Amino acid sequence: MKKILFILIPFVLFSCFERTKKDKYINNEFVKLLWSNEKFDWMPSSLISYNNQLYFADLKNNFYSINIENAKVNFNIKTDYNPINKPLIQEHNLFLTEYGNDLNCFDKNGKFKWKINGEINLRNDLAGYNKSIYGSVKGNGFSKIDTTNGKVVWFLPKDSNITETNKPTFYKEIIYLGFSELSSKLLAINNDNGKIIWERKYENFKTIKQYKTENGLLVLLDKNFKNGKILMLNFENGNEIWSKSLNPDLHYEPCIVNKNIILSTYDNKIISLATEKGKTNWIFNINKDQAATEIVNHEKNIYFGTINRDLYCINSNNGKINFIQPFNYGIVKPIVLENKIYFPTGGNEVWVQK
């Protein structure tokens, strides 16, 4: 039930609801508050980092770029919509998708450059690679788009109005794109001309995600939060290298580090697998809690937030707990910059590890 609610309103988990008064005044033993600014009133689902900047939308139709260390505003764009989805930064340009699915391009200082119409899938499949961006443009299906003017270079016609394309993965000059509908499929596409190289269908699964690893293309499949599978495919021909039954949580990108895949599952576990053969390194059970952010690696440890607003720090080699830090607000994906790890929260705060 918790997972279904998360799908419907993902930003609720990171909202400004506090713990009870009994829990509110907790000992911040492992983290310290860097700054807090209630005026931002940010939408955590829109927050990303780039270099030393945080980018986010607020509930008053503003979009900000601020310094992560001191919250100094770099620019503030006034919009006529609330861009709740994460923006894309590519070639020093900022790309925002509207509620109406339009794609807006701004320069690094927030100056408007161009705008094009998009499909609803653009919120999920917008991505950048080299000097191009990719996503679902209105009337043209999935497209390669010129960053300078928004013109379509090539496109794949959409299968149907209910097909959902995911964020593509890139390896050399091949694009890997997943399609989710009543079943799932995966395409390998020539980046130069948009021609399909190979296709794989997964009839028994509804949702698909794919990621690049050192040993091949990692594919995560799910049907109903209970029946899932994880595969490793050959980049060139799509042949299976290994596979195993698992329930990967497809809402969060796995952490791929040191030839290991670390991911959360729908049955409240964190699992580490070797990319080479899929061997299980360790399993950590969160018990009655559940991961609610992506897993981030920093200095031989992994970090993630949970539905119960706890921050976990776990040794990435053996899965042992280093510490659990409670927070008053929901935790957004931790951010690693240089030698620091930052913890934004739904309370318009940024914390750092002591």
Q: Describe it for me?
A:
With 354 residues, the protein is mainly beta. Helices cover 4% and strands 48% of the residues. The protein has three helices and 33 strands. The strands form eight sheets. Strands 14, 15, 16, 17 and 18 form a five-stranded antiparallel sheet that branches. It has a four-stranded antiparallel sheet with strand order 1-33-32-31, with no helix packed on it. A hairpin with a 2-residue loop joins strand 10 (127-129) and strand 11 (132-137). The longest helix is centred in the N-terminal third of the chain and has 7 residues, at 2-8.
Helix and strand layout, with pairings?
Layout (H helix, E strand, L loop, with lengths): L1 H7 L12 H4 L6 E6 L11 E3 L2 E5 L4 E6 L5 E6 L9 E3 L2 E5 L5 E5 L4 E5 L5 H4 L1 E3 L2 E6 L3 E6 L5 E5 L7 E2 L3 E3 L2 E7 L3 E7 L5 E7 L4 E7 L2 E7 L5 E6 L6 E6 L9 E3 L2 E5 L4 E6 L5 E6 L10 E3 L2 E5 L4 E6 L5 E6 L8 E3 L2 E5 L4 E5 L1
Antiparallel strand pairs: 1-33, 2-3, 3-4, 4-5, 6-7, 7-8, 8-9, 10-11, 11-12, 12-13, 14-16, 15-16, 16-17, 17-18, 19-20, 20-21, 21-22, 23-24, 24-25, 25-26, 27-28, 28-29, 29-30, 31-32, 32-33
